[in-house]
Write a structure and sequence with these properties.
single chain, mainly alpha
C-alpha cells in the first residue's frame, strides 16, 4: 500500500481513538484498573490468542484460492505473521469507524492487493468478512439452545429466544445462499437501489461488472470446490467467538468467584447481538455498555458489576485499537501494485 494511504488510515483511526478516549471518566478508569488488577493483563493477552483464530481463518481462505502455479507463487508472498499484523490493524479500524466495514476491509484489500492481485484480495476479504459475520449467527443460535437447556425460561424470554433463533436461521440461510452463488453482485445491486448511494453504485456496477463476476466466482469456489476449507474457516471463527467468552469470565471473577463459563457466554451473546444492532456507532459506543448492563442484570448480577464489565472491555478495545493503529505505521510500504488477473 502507498504510504499516503497508510497515513490516511492511521490518522483517521487515531482521530477517532482520541475522541473516544476523551469521553472516558479517568478516575473511574483508574479505579477500575486497580480493581481488576492482573486480570486486565490476562484479558489483553487473551486477545493475542483470539486474533490467531481470526488470522488462521483468513489465511485458509487465501490459500484456498490457489488454482494455478502463478497463483501459488503469489500466495507464498503472504506470510502468516504479516497477515496477523494486518488482521489486528483491520479490526482496529473496524472498532474505530461507524459501520465497521467502512474502515478495516478497504485497508485489508489495499494491503493485500500488491501481493496477490486486487480481485483475489477483494474476494478473500469479502469471504473472510462473510465468514466472520456467519459465525456470529451460529454463536447466537448456539447460545439460545444452551440457554434453553441450562436456564429457566419465562414467557418473555421464550419470545425473545424464538425471535433470535428465527433471525439466526434466516441469517444462516442468507449466507449459505451467498456462499453458493456469490455475494458481490447482489450487494452492489442492492446498493444501486438505495437513495443515498444509488448515483455512485449504478455506474460502479456497470464499470466493474467483469471484476464483480470474478469475485463472485471465487466466493462460490470456496464453498463448492473447497468445502473442507470452508468449514474449517467457519469453525475457527466460531471457536474464536466461544473462546472470547473467557474475557467476560476473567473480568467477572474479580467480582463474583461463583460465575461460570456459560453465564459469560450468554452475556457475550446478548451484548454482541445488541451492539451489532447499533452497528453505525463508532466503537459501538453505548450499545455495548447497555448490552452488558441488561444481560448481567437478567442473570441476577448487580448493575455495578455490569458497569465494571463494560468499562474493562472498553479499555481492552481501546488498547488493542491503539496497538492496531501503531502496527499500520510500523508496516512496510508495499512497492508497486499488482493487477488482478
Amino acid at each position: 500500500m502507498k504510504k499516503k494511504y497508510q497515513n490516511a488510515f492511521f490518522l483517521f483511526g487515531l482521530l477517532v481513538l482520541v475522541v473516544m478516549v476523551t469521553q472516558l471518566d479517568f478516575k473511574q478508569v483508574w479505579d477500575g484498573l486497580r480493581h481488576a488488577g492482573y486480570w486486565f493483563f490476562a484479558v489483553l493477552a487473551l486477545w493475542l490468542v483470539l486474533y490467531l483464530f481470526n488470522t488462521g481463518a483468513w489465511y485458509l481462505i487465501i490459500r484456498s484460492q490457489d488454482s494455478t502455479p502463478e497463483g501459488m507463487q503469489r500466495t507464498k508472498k503472504v506470510k502468516f505473521w504479516w497477515l496477523y499484523k494486518i488482521t489486528v490493524s483491520g479490526f482496529a479500524l473496524n472498532y474505530a469507524t461507524p459501520g465497521g466495514l467502512m474502515g478495516g476491509e478497504p485497508y485489508r484489500i489495499m494491503e493485500l492487493a500488491p501481493k496477490i492481485g486486487t480481485e483475489r484480495a477483494s474476494s478473500s476479504v469479502i469471504l473472510y468478512a462473510m465468514t466472520h459475520i456467519f459465525s456470529h449467527f451460529w454463536f447466537w443460535g448456539l447460545s439460545c439452545v444452551l440457554y434453553l437447556l441450562i436456564r429457566p425460561v419465562d414467557f418473555l424470554m421464550g419470545v425473545l429466544l424464538a425471535i433470535t433463533m428465527g433471525a439466526c436461521t434466516l441469517g444462516i440461510w442468507f449466507f449459505f445462499s451467498g456462499y453458493r452463488k456469490g455475494l458481490a453482485n447482489r450487494v452492489m445491486k442492492l446498493l444501486s437501489h438505495l437513495p443515498l448511494v444509488r448515483k455512485w453504485a449504478q455506474p460502479f456496477v456497470e464499470e466493474h461488472r467483469e471484476q464483480l463476476d470474478t469475485v463472485d466466482q471465487q466466493i462460490a469456489a470456496l464453498h463448492n470446490q473447497n468445502p473442507r476449507t470452508f468449514f474449517c474457516a467457519v469453525l475457527l471463527e466460531l471457536s474464536c467467538r466461544v473462546c472470547s467468552s473467557l474475557e467476560i469470565l476473567f473480568i467477572l471473577l474479580v467480582l463474583r468467584p461463583s460465575v461460570n463459563f456459560f453465564d459469560s457466554m450468554f452475556i457475550l451473546a446478548f451484548t454482541s447481538l445488541f451492539a451489532n444492532l447499533l452497528f453505525f456507532m463508532p466503537l459501538q459506543l453505548g450499545g455495548r455498555e447497555g448490552g452488558f448492563l441488561m444481560s448481567t442484570t437478567k442473570l441476577g448480577m448487580a448493575a455495578s458489576q455490569g458497569i465494571f464489565l463494560a468499562l474493562i472491555v472498553r479499555l481492552r478495545e481501546l488498547t488493542w485499537t491503539g496497538v492496531g493503529l501503531l502496527l499500520i505505521k510500523l508496516g512496510r510500504n508495499g512497492k508497486g501494485t499488482q493487477k488482478a488477473k
